[in-house]
From TrEMBL:
Signal peptide: none
Organism of this sequence: Hyalangium minutum
Name used for this protein in its record: Short-chain dehydrogenase/reductase (SDR) protein
Highest taxon in the source lineage: Bacteria
GO MF: oxidoreductase activity, acting on the CH-OH group of donors, NAD or NADP as acceptor
Length: 254
């Protein structure tokens, strides 16, 4: 019954379910790189408050934690293959999305080491660019028809403080920094190009987060980063479009 399903969702998602009780309308969200780290936690939290998520994973067959959310979501989670570096994969993913999308979160990203001047790997830098910068633009372009069908849809591109030119006082991390700076620039163009239609595009820094990428020494638990990002995305208006914000909502210098 509906009641049983509600009870099992509350049990599964715990206190997060309660935060969603006061929400007015459920949203449709697309999240890339949703099988682990920040993407997985964003997916969990959106589902917990009653929203629907189209989750993209590079290798869905290995996305066990994400797949475990399918049954308790009661049909609100869809899991599909999406390698953001591959045009055909992104096209196929976009074709599974058949309804207006309120929020697109381009979260998929890579950061490999070494990435220093003394140990440059430019092929790796190019692969990083292909995922972090071109991947987000590729997914956005493919989903644009579905974003345009939702009034005031939001595109949240997950960047990094390392993508800030103004804040670069420590050097290094060539491929990663360049890829995120390029993502920032693409997002600014998206904001300009889509403003007249009421679509919002921003770059958001998740903080330094406890994930495979961030490492265990990172200060920010993934739940805190994801909750901050979700609250921030909820509050975005057209005035914010084209800005670079951290997960608590503060501005970051370009
Ligand atoms: P993780 O390394 O934990 O997860 C990265 C996710 O991106 C995985 O789901 C991974 O999938 C996916 N991914 C990688 N390449 C592709 C691809 N080609 N197509 C689709 N998905 C892909 O990282 P985080 O969760 O920490 O990072 C998420 C985002 O936040 C990234 O954009 C990252 O740059 C950014 N960020 C993170 C910070 C941190 O401290 N953690 C700090 C600043 C920014 P798979 O499992 O298949 O590899």
């Amino acid at each position: 019954s509906m009641e049983d399903e509600g009870a099992s969702q509350r049990e599964h998602f715990g206190h997060l379910y309660l935060q969603g009780i006061s929400k007015i309308a459920a949203m449709k969200i697309v999240i890339t790189g949703a099988n682990r780290g920040i993407g997985l936690e964003l997916t969990r939290q959106y589902l917990a408050r009653g929203d629907s998520v189209y989750a993209g994973a590079r290798t869905p067959g290995r996305a066990r934690e994400l797949a475990a959310l399918l049954a308790p979501s009661g049909g609100r989670l869809q899991l599909h293959a999406c390698d953001v570096s591959l045009e055909a994969s992104v096209r196929t993913f976009a074709s599974t999305v058949s309804e207006p999308i309120d929020v697109l979160i381009n979260n998929a990203g890579v950061r490999s080491r070494p990435d220093s001047l003394e140990a440059l790997d430019l092929d790796d830098a190019a692969r990083t660019f292909q995922v972090n910068a071109l991947g987000a633009l590729r997914v956005t372009s493919a989903l644009l028809p579905m974003l345009r069908r939702s009034a005031g849809a939001k595109i949240a591109n997950i960047t990094s403080g390392l993508g800030s030119i103004a804040d670069n006082t420590s050097g290094g991390s060539y491929g990663y920094r360049m890829s995120k700076a390029a993502l920032n620039m693409a997002t600014r163009s998206l904001a300009q190009d889509l403003r007249a239609e009421g679509l919002i595009a921003v770059v958001l820094s998740p903080g330094w987060v406890q994930t495979d990428m961030g490492g265990s020494e990172a200060p920010t638990p993934v739940a805190e980063s994801a909750a901050g990002l979700i609250g921030l995305i909820d509050r975005l208006t057209l005035q914010d479009s084209g800005t670079f914000l951290d997960f608590r909502g503060g501005p970051i210098a370009w």
